[in-house]
Specification:
about 160 residues, mainly alpha, three-stranded mixed β-sheet, 3 strands, about 5% strand
Length: about 160
Amino acid sequence: MAALDYIRDGDTLVVTKLDRLARSTADLLRISEAVERKGARLRILGLDLDTSTATGKLLLAMVGAIAAFGRELMLERQREGIAAAKAAGKYRGRKATARAKADQARALKDQGLGASEIAHRLGIGRANVVSGASRGLKAPETAVECPGPNQPCRVPMRGQQRSR
């Protein structure tokens, strides 16, 4: 968290909601402790909570534990729902769209289109095209030409013919 690097003695770290600050009780307590070590205080607007008092510190720990408990219950219910849907044959997961469009992506790449344009045309993420997640979209390895020892090597640019 970048804010912890900039906070100084006497500052107040203001957060609108608790879930925007930490993902777990342990993380929340670690952040709160780091803020306190720097001589600053933590204020959570949504709960009207201020850690500059003993009561505020107690409430922060309790609210953090309750929030983590609620999240665990939600995840448990989600897993149960997915298991029930799978058992009923109604849950198949998300289709792998980038892999399903690998042949189309390869054809567009062979036409010389860039990753952004391919992604736009096929409705897939640019990162899928760039990383080659759509199977085999990475550029072929190019040979490196080195004239001799202690001389710079020339690596051809993409789409450029190697000089002979």
